[in-house]
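[09:14] KT: can someone run the structure on this one? pasting the chain below
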Amino acid sequence: MKIIFFLLFFLSALNAEVHNTDIAPFVESKQFGSLRILDQKRLDFKAIAGIKFSEISDLAYEQKSKKLYFVGDEGKLFVFDALFGKKIDKLEPLGSVRLTKGNGKAFAPWQCDSEGLALNKKGELCISFEGRAKIGHFGENGRMIDSYALPLRLRDPQNYRSRNKSLEALAWHPRYGLLTVAEWPLKQTESKVQTVYALQGKTWHFKAEAEPKSAVVAIEVMDDGNLLVMERSFTALFEPLVVTLKKIYLNDCAAKQSMCRTEVLLKMDSHKGWMIDNFEGLTRVSNHRYVMVSDDNDNFFQQTLFVYFEISD
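[09:31] RB: done, structure tokens below
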């Protein structure tokens, strides 16, 4: 009887799609300054409604409906039923769609690199793209309803350091509306000075992290109206992968050309015991609580990691 029980347990584990994991160094506490890791999962969904679940770029959570949206590279959108308490209580896929033009036709290959995801004040999907930089408003059927006018500096593709380093991050601010950040600072800008752009025209500047090629990969608005920023530094296979979560004090940064005050909340370094992957997505799920996700690059040797954490005041 015991053999049958363990065999069934083993088979269920093989078929499981959400696994416990631990990305933190071997320490007793999961408290790191003001940030505490609450739960950690590895997502092994092969396909959802016929679309391969891979290369996840960003997240957005609708608290009333409990829907968690994942956007993936190449114009893929996944919807989950998700509940967050002391732990991740529920994470079940509901469906998926491919992002298309308003007429239902597919985007050209250079137009469908979806990277940033946010919900506007009406709970509608907003998605930013690399390649040909744009921000679109989409329905849950995946069709683009309309596009947003970008600030002048973000409209010209020649202003970006490369087509693959454009509108990586997106968030909705209750005061300033949609905010976006290019992965790397624009040309004719200091390489270590990053800029947050409000589509309404306001800008804020902050210092990028000291690690080589530190790039902004996700942003989210915090409870106090300031900005949570995720930066990632990767230079080579055997060099450290470093992911930083930092707070940008937008509220204290009134002057147009001043540098905003920043505070590093957590620095995860693969050479210092952190079992991390290519983190790219970030969203707020309740007061002071967030989740982040990694992009597996559709690579057998990488993982989709999903981490639930809390930031205290």
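[09:33] KT: thanks! The longest strand covers residues 88-98.
[09:34] RB: yep, looked fine to me
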